[in-house]
Amino acid sequence: TWYNPENHAGTGHYGVSGQKTDSFLNTQTFLDAWGTFIHSGKIWAYDFVVKIDPDAVFFPDRLRWRMASKVGQAIYVANCGKWQSGPKLYGSVEVFSVPALRI
User: Fold this and answer.
1) To bridge 99 with a disulfide, which of 14, 60, 74, 82 should be the other Cys (CB 3.0-4.6 Å)?
2) pLDDT tens across 87-97, in order?
3) Helix, strand, coil percent content, the chain, rounded in steps of 5
4) pTM above 0.85, yes or no
């Protein structure tokens, strides 16, 4: 078990002061969590790391089957096609290969 102190995360207001989101401004919270996880050394023995929101339904066997041909490649799975600028990484399930995390 790891612990990172909580950072207050307000919400953005799209278009106000250059903000590009109406969502939570919680980037630092995620950076802190990922830093703790990466520096723990626990992830390097695996092929992929999956970030799952606590309210998400996740079936690891379905992902394992779909990602089998990607083992060893430095990839992330884009999971949002909402914006015309191209696919993005948003949402309750985020998938990264371990080689991608080494970059």
Assistant:
1) 74
2) 887 778 999 99
3) 30, 15, 55
4) no
